[in-house]
Protein backbone atom coordinates (compact mmCIF):
# COMPACT_ATOMS: atom_id res chain seq x y z
CA UNK A 1 0.00 0.00 0.00
CA UNK A 2 2.80 2.43 0.88
CA UNK A 3 4.54 1.70 -2.42
CA UNK A 4 1.37 2.64 -4.33
CA UNK A 5 1.07 5.89 -2.40
CA UNK A 6 4.69 6.80 -3.08
CA UNK A 7 4.26 6.08 -6.78
CA UNK A 8 1.05 8.14 -6.83
CA UNK A 9 2.79 11.03 -5.05
CA UNK A 10 5.71 11.01 -7.51
CA UNK A 11 3.36 10.86 -10.49
CA UNK A 12 1.22 13.68 -9.09
CA UNK A 13 4.24 15.89 -8.43
CA UNK A 14 5.42 15.35 -12.00
CA UNK A 15 1.99 16.33 -13.34
CA UNK A 16 1.62 19.36 -11.09
CA UNK A 17 5.17 20.58 -11.59
CA UNK A 18 7.31 22.61 -9.22
CA UNK A 19 5.72 24.82 -6.62
CA UNK A 20 3.08 22.29 -5.61
CA UNK A 21 3.18 20.02 -2.62
CA UNK A 22 0.88 17.15 -1.78
CA UNK A 23 1.30 14.78 1.12
CA UNK A 24 -0.23 11.33 1.35
CA UNK A 25 -0.51 9.10 4.37
CA UNK A 26 -2.12 5.82 5.22
CA UNK A 27 -1.47 6.03 8.96
CA UNK A 28 -3.92 7.19 11.57
CA UNK A 29 -3.67 10.79 12.81
CA UNK A 30 -0.98 11.13 15.42
CA UNK A 31 1.09 8.19 14.16
CA UNK A 32 4.49 8.41 12.58
CA UNK A 33 2.98 7.41 9.23
CA UNK A 34 0.47 10.28 9.22
CA UNK A 35 1.55 13.33 7.23
CA UNK A 36 -0.29 16.64 7.17
CA UNK A 37 -1.94 17.56 3.91
CA UNK A 38 -0.41 20.63 2.35
CA UNK A 39 -2.02 22.79 -0.27
CA UNK A 40 -0.40 23.79 -3.52
CA UNK A 41 1.30 27.20 -3.37
CA UNK A 42 2.54 29.38 -6.17
CA UNK A 43 6.24 29.25 -6.97
CA UNK A 44 8.51 31.10 -4.56
CA UNK A 45 8.56 34.86 -4.97
CA UNK A 46 5.10 35.18 -6.51
CA UNK A 47 3.08 35.17 -3.29
CA UNK A 48 3.55 37.55 -0.38
CA UNK A 49 3.52 36.31 3.19
CA UNK A 50 0.45 37.34 5.16
CA UNK A 51 0.67 38.30 8.83
CA UNK A 52 -0.88 35.00 9.96
CA UNK A 53 1.79 33.06 8.07
CA UNK A 54 4.55 35.26 9.49
CA UNK A 55 3.27 34.67 13.03
CA UNK A 56 3.09 30.90 12.45
CA UNK A 57 6.67 30.86 11.11
CA UNK A 58 7.92 32.94 14.04
CA UNK A 59 6.24 30.67 16.60
CA UNK A 60 7.59 27.54 14.91
CA UNK A 61 11.09 29.03 15.21
CA UNK A 62 10.69 30.63 18.64
CA UNK A 63 7.93 28.95 20.67
CA UNK A 64 5.85 31.19 22.91
CA UNK A 65 2.99 33.64 22.37
CA UNK A 66 2.98 36.28 19.64
CA UNK A 67 2.11 39.67 21.13
CA UNK A 68 2.79 41.83 18.07
CA UNK A 69 3.54 41.58 14.37
CA UNK A 70 4.24 44.41 11.98
CA UNK A 71 5.71 45.10 8.61
CA UNK A 72 8.85 47.20 8.74
CA UNK A 73 8.52 50.40 6.73
CA UNK A 74 12.13 51.50 6.37
CA UNK A 75 15.76 50.67 7.00
CA UNK A 76 17.60 47.47 6.24
CA UNK A 77 14.58 45.36 7.28
CA UNK A 78 12.04 47.24 5.12
CA UNK A 79 9.24 44.93 4.03
CA UNK A 80 10.04 42.16 6.52
CA UNK A 81 7.67 41.04 9.23
CA UNK A 82 8.84 41.67 12.80
CA UNK A 83 7.03 39.33 15.19
CA UNK A 84 7.35 39.84 18.94
CA UNK A 85 7.17 36.60 20.91
CA UNK A 86 6.99 36.21 24.69
CA UNK A 87 7.87 32.93 26.34
CA UNK A 88 6.34 31.56 29.53
CA UNK A 89 9.40 32.72 31.51
CA UNK A 90 8.72 36.32 30.31
CA UNK A 91 11.70 36.50 27.96
CA UNK A 92 10.85 38.47 24.85
CA UNK A 93 12.16 37.90 21.33
CA UNK A 94 11.80 39.61 17.98
CA UNK A 95 11.68 37.23 15.02
CA UNK A 96 12.24 38.57 11.49
CA UNK A 97 10.29 36.80 8.72
CA UNK A 98 10.76 37.17 4.97
CA UNK A 99 7.79 38.80 3.22
CA UNK A 100 8.44 36.74 0.08
CA UNK A 101 9.15 33.24 1.36
CA UNK A 102 7.68 33.25 4.87
CA UNK A 103 10.94 31.87 6.24
CA UNK A 104 12.56 33.11 9.42
CA UNK A 105 15.53 35.35 8.63
CA UNK A 106 16.69 35.74 12.22
CA UNK A 107 15.68 36.19 15.84
CA UNK A 108 17.08 38.03 18.80
CA UNK A 109 16.28 38.33 22.47
CA UNK A 110 14.92 41.72 23.48
CA UNK A 111 17.04 42.45 26.53
CA UNK A 112 15.25 45.70 27.39
CA UNK A 113 11.76 44.20 27.09
CA UNK A 114 10.21 42.33 30.00
CA UNK A 115 7.32 40.20 28.80
CA UNK A 116 5.64 39.99 32.22
CA UNK A 117 3.09 42.70 31.38
CA UNK A 118 2.15 40.91 28.17
CA UNK A 119 1.81 37.57 29.96
CA UNK A 120 -0.43 39.19 32.58
CA UNK A 121 -2.58 40.78 29.87
CA UNK A 122 -2.93 37.44 28.09
CA UNK A 123 -4.22 35.55 31.14
CA UNK A 124 -7.94 35.96 30.45
CA UNK A 125 -7.84 36.05 26.68
CA UNK A 126 -9.16 33.46 24.24
CA UNK A 127 -8.21 35.20 20.98
CA UNK A 128 -4.58 35.13 19.85
CA UNK A 129 -2.76 37.42 17.40
CA UNK A 130 -3.52 35.21 14.38
CA UNK A 131 -7.22 35.05 15.20
CA UNK A 132 -7.34 38.82 15.66
CA UNK A 133 -5.72 39.29 12.23
CA UNK A 134 -8.15 36.82 10.65
CA UNK A 135 -11.10 38.71 12.16
CA UNK A 136 -10.07 41.88 10.34
CA UNK A 137 -8.54 40.40 7.15
CA UNK A 138 -11.80 40.63 5.15
CA UNK A 139 -11.60 44.43 5.61
CA UNK A 140 -8.14 44.75 4.05
CA UNK A 141 -4.59 43.47 4.06
CA UNK A 142 -3.38 43.40 7.69
CA UNK A 143 -0.15 45.32 8.22
CA UNK A 144 0.10 45.22 12.02
CA UNK A 145 -1.28 43.38 15.06
CA UNK A 146 -0.48 44.49 18.59
CA UNK A 147 -1.68 43.47 22.06
CA UNK A 148 -3.20 46.28 24.12
CA UNK A 149 -3.88 46.21 27.83
CA UNK A 150 -5.73 49.14 29.32
CA UNK A 151 -3.85 49.05 32.60
CA UNK A 152 -6.06 48.08 35.51
CA UNK A 153 -9.30 48.19 33.52
CA UNK A 154 -9.18 44.55 32.49
CA UNK A 155 -9.87 45.43 28.86
CA UNK A 156 -7.34 43.49 26.83
CA UNK A 157 -7.71 43.98 23.09
CA UNK A 158 -5.77 43.57 19.88
CA UNK A 159 -5.05 46.60 17.71
CA UNK A 160 -5.10 45.60 14.06
CA UNK A 161 -4.11 47.93 11.22
CA UNK A 162 -4.95 47.36 7.58
CA UNK A 163 -3.58 48.90 4.41
CA UNK A 164 -6.98 50.01 3.15
CA UNK A 165 -9.57 50.27 5.93
CA UNK A 166 -7.49 51.73 8.75
CA UNK A 167 -7.30 50.66 12.36
CA UNK A 168 -9.47 48.10 14.13
CA UNK A 169 -9.87 46.85 17.69
CA UNK A 170 -10.48 43.16 18.31
CA UNK A 171 -11.77 42.04 21.71
CA UNK A 172 -9.26 39.52 23.08
CA UNK A 173 -12.04 37.49 24.70
CA UNK A 174 -14.80 37.47 22.10
CA UNK A 175 -12.97 38.13 18.83
CA UNK A 176 -15.42 40.90 17.89
CA UNK A 177 -13.79 43.43 15.54
CA UNK A 178 -14.72 47.11 15.65
CA UNK A 179 -13.35 49.76 13.34
CA UNK A 180 -11.64 52.65 15.15
CA UNK A 181 -13.57 55.81 14.37
CA UNK A 182 -10.67 58.09 15.34
CA UNK A 183 -8.55 56.80 12.46
TrEMBL record:
It comes from the Bacteria. Residues 52-107, 128-176 form the PepSY domain. The keyword Membrane does not apply. Residues 1-23 form the signal peptide. Residues 132-163 are annotated as: Disordered. InterPro entries: PepSY. Keywords: Signal. It holds the Pfam family PepSY. This is PepSY domain-containing protein. The lineage of its organism: Bacteria, Bacillati, Actinomycetota, Actinomycetes, Kitasatosporales.
